[in-house]
Amino acid sequence: MVSATRVRVASALLLAAASVGTYAALTGATAAGSTHPAGQTNTAKAGRPSVKRFDLNGYVIITAYSLGRNTGNTFRQTYTHSKVQGVPIKGPFVGTKFPAEDYVAMPIGNHEIYVAWLDPKKHALVDVFVMNFSTHVVYDYAPGSSHPESSGTVTVQKRGSQPLP
Question: Which residue stretches of the chain have pLDDT < 50?
């Protein structure tokens, strides 16, 4: 005769295995039907994610830095369909003239975009930002020094025609 302890242990193991199997089936089905993050879709052939650009045309964005290389500086960034003009409006860099640059912006999360400024002649990165419009935090990486990173606040002074992600 089988002891009650063995029956209980076998029942517990069977219940645990059934729970794990059910969990795996449900999470697999949910993952298969899940939506992609903002700006990403599957390509028809490769099944790989792709990114969608974000047009900042009409936006005027203010970045004020309290940490890193740009500490104490505030910049106005004015965007068209393909160009951006950065102008220092407060701090040690006021009076510095920067050329207009090309840019690429991509939504990377809720209320968050990645923006890369590019030299139009060399196509080299000039400045890279991650801007979170929910927390109002900006991260900035400007190549060209041994400590190129900065962080601070980001605000929208003027909205463009396309709503932020």
Answer: 5-45
Q: CA 13, 15, 19, 22 torsion: positive or negative?
A: positive
Q: Is 43 left (phi over 0), alpha (psi -120 to 50) or beta?
A: beta
Whether the Cβ atoms of residue 10 and residue 82 lie closer than 8 Å to each other: no
Q: How far is C-alpha 64 from the geometric centre of its chain's CA atoms?
A: 19
Residue pair 163/75 in contact (Cβ under 8 Å)? The answer is no
The phi and psi torsions of 77 (rounded to 5 degrees) equal -110, 115
What is the CA angle 108-133-86, rounded to 5?
90
Burial of 73 (0-12, 13-18, 19+ CB in 10 A): buried
